[in-house]
Amino acid sequence: MNIYQITFWILSLFTLAFAIGVIMSRNPINSVLFLILTFFCISGHYVLMNAQFLAIVNIIVYAGAIMVLFLFVIMLMNLNSDTEPQKNFLVQFAGVVSGGALLLIMVAAIKSSLTGLEGKNIDLINSTDIGLIKNLGTVLFTTYVFPFEIASVLFLSAMVGAVVLGKKDSALKTAE
Amino acid sequence: MNAIVLSGIWGVVMMFAGLFLKSSKQIQWTALLGIIALLVVSILDYQAHSVQAQTYFGMMTIDVYTSWFSILITACCAMYLLIFHKDIAAVGKNEAEYFALIFFVMCGVYLLASYSNLLILFLGIEILSIPQYILAGSDKENIKSNEASLKYFLMGAFSTGLLLMGMTLIYGATGSFDITSEKFVGQFEQLSSMSSLSFVGILLLLISFGFKVSAAPLHLWTPDVYDGSPTAFTPFMATIVKVSVFVAFIRLFHFSFGNVSDAWQIAIASMIVLTLIIGNVTAVYQQSLKRMMAYSSIAQAGFMLFSIFAVNSTLAYKGILLYSVVYSLASIGVFAVIIKMKDYTYDGFNGLAKKQPVLAFTATVCLLSLVGIPLTGGFFAKYFVLSAVVEQGKYIWIVVFAVLMAAISAYYYFRVIRSMYFKTGEAAMHTEPTTWDKTLLILNAMIILLLGVLPSLVFG
User: Fold this and answer.
1) A107–B contact, CB cutoff 8 A
2) How far is A58 from chain B (nearest CA, A)?
3) Is residue B339 assigned to a domain?
4) Which of A56, A68, B78, B430 could pair with B342 as two cysteines, CB 3.0-4.6 Å apart?
5) How far apart are the CA of B263 and the nearest CA of chain A, in angstroms?
6) Given an 8 Å threshold on Cβ–Cβ distance, is A146 in contact with B120?
7) Cβ–Cβ under 8 Å, residues B388 and B319
8) How close A155 comes to chain B (CA, Å)?
9) Which residues of A35-70 are buried (b: 16+ CB within 10 A; e: fewer)?
């Protein structure tokens, strides 16, 4: 076991532990905090795969911006155990069964697609520098320039929508 | 390709129109000008690509089939805007933005018709969906509209997650997003050599597409969203958006996954059976016509799924083209009458034939087409998708089942006709139809009747 493998296992262990913490904690605030920790651990994995840019973006966007938003919303909603809706046992049971079936299929698919790879040493570490920002930028503005431009339509429509939904109709009426 | 650019640009033009044009009429005219320009551009695109297919940036492949579909769907959208432009402007204060969002959706429609890369498929589906979440909630004072928007957004976001997961697994198995690349084609050449990752990937894509076209058992959002949304936007969601997702669906599952159809055909078959039975039987029990049309759109989606089911059949492509046009025009025609009414229940339509004979007549033609009565376009649409399955020779019993279900659908469609013609009542109008409205509705009905005689007109 070299240092990469040790780091990988430790990070994976922490990721799983925090992820379980997200769904197990009763208090939603704790859940969000656990989620932030999970994102940090996943960023660690990205660094291990030599994708520093992705790691930093993951921390800034997910652990930073989105999670702060989450915390705000949860604090505004003032959730506690009283407001928790009563769930039907049958619905819960169906959810567990279907979710479990999906998990089983995914795990089985990944397991069976690994069968041909035994003995082959997949060296992800340092084998590629595709995750560096220079290469990412080059690819983004050459091969993927069309999706990059088209994404602007998507963001524009989302922005228009946010304004349409956020603007007060009545305020507009009085201004006229 | 030019249609994609123009639809994006015209969305921006509409935003500026909202800023600079003060009168609502001018904004509506700008939108109508835009859709006519889009129609012209898509016809020019068709002429440019009619000889050979062209690939752009390795991301989109535009050939005769896709550019012809673009013309048809733009024509349907033009019909929708011509009939509904006043009602769209009447929904709220931000009329220019509603039109802008519709043009952005059209951009997504063109992307979905011509993608050859899974990335573009994802972007197309998102450009299609996000404006719809907003249009569904544009009637802000109405709590049902808010519910529709939130419900659609949450469930749509979840189904997008499944779509991405499916794409990721397929990327993991093939190493490529490009559906024309050797790696991608090689992976899906035969079932025995297919990786189990792609198997699960196909399944997840199927679920996500099934959600977008509201196939059972993923249809639960549809009645609430179509019923809660402003009536001006429901026909747009139920027709133009839905059929364009079908074309994206058929593109991926026939061209890429056609050789491994044994992996997913049984799933589609069960989807068809569930969709037909749930859509048709639940529609029988509806009291509101708008909600009945929501269930009817689920049932019609069940018929359109047949074209996905019949792999490697030229009849299936013809069928989906004809079905798209006929179903869109017929639904637009019915909704154009619904939106004029004050009361959306069946009783609200009592005696409409005496009061507004033109509206009653056009609605009758559209409803007959939705049932699939001969001499209307709906007959040939159903005929082509069903005979595609017969030609393929597998699961013939579903065809028999579908014909039975079409007979059930006759009950709730004829109930509207009975209310309009054979019952006496007030039929209170919300807005009186103008001569212009009536002309358009008659034109719409004429096209449906024409396609019932000459269905080959839409095959290009």
Assistant:
1) no
2) 18
3) yes
4) B430
5) 14
6) yes
7) yes
8) 9
9) bbbbbbbbbbbbbbbbbeebbebbbeebbeeebeeb
Q: Please name every residue paired with B56 in a beta bridge, in sequence order, or none if there are none.
A: B60
Counting the structural domains of chain B, the total is 1
B55: alpha, beta or left, given left = phi > 0 and alpha = psi -120 to 50?
Answer: beta
Residue B280 placed within a domain? yes
How many distinct structural domains can be found in chain A?
Answer: 1
* Cβ proximity of B62 and B56 under 8 Å: yes
Chain B residues touching residue A157 (CB < 8 angstroms): 11, 100-101, 104, 127, 130-131, 134
User: Is the Cα dihedral B405, B406, B411, B413 positive or negative?
Assistant: positive
Tens of pLDDT along B243-266? 999 999 999 999 889 888 888 999
Q: Please name every residue paired with B60 in a beta bridge, in sequence order, or none if there are none.
A: B56, B115
Whether B209 maps to a domain, the answer reads no
Domain around B367: 264-460
Residues 6+ apart with CB under 8 A from B184: B174, B176, B177, B178, B256
Note the pTM of the prediction, 2 decimals: 0.92
pLDDT tens, residue by residue, B409-425: 999 999 999 999 998 88
Asked if the Cβ–Cβ distance from A150 to B169 is below 8 Å, we say no
**Which amino acid does the sequence have at A60?**
I
Q: Is residue A151 part of a domain?
A: yes
The verdict on residue B155 lying in a domain is no
All residues at 6 or more sequence positions from B151 whose CB lies less than 8 Å from its CB, including other chains:
B221, B224, B225, B228
Residue B140 CB coordination number (10 Å): 20
Q: Do A156 and B117 touch (CB under 8 A)?
A: no
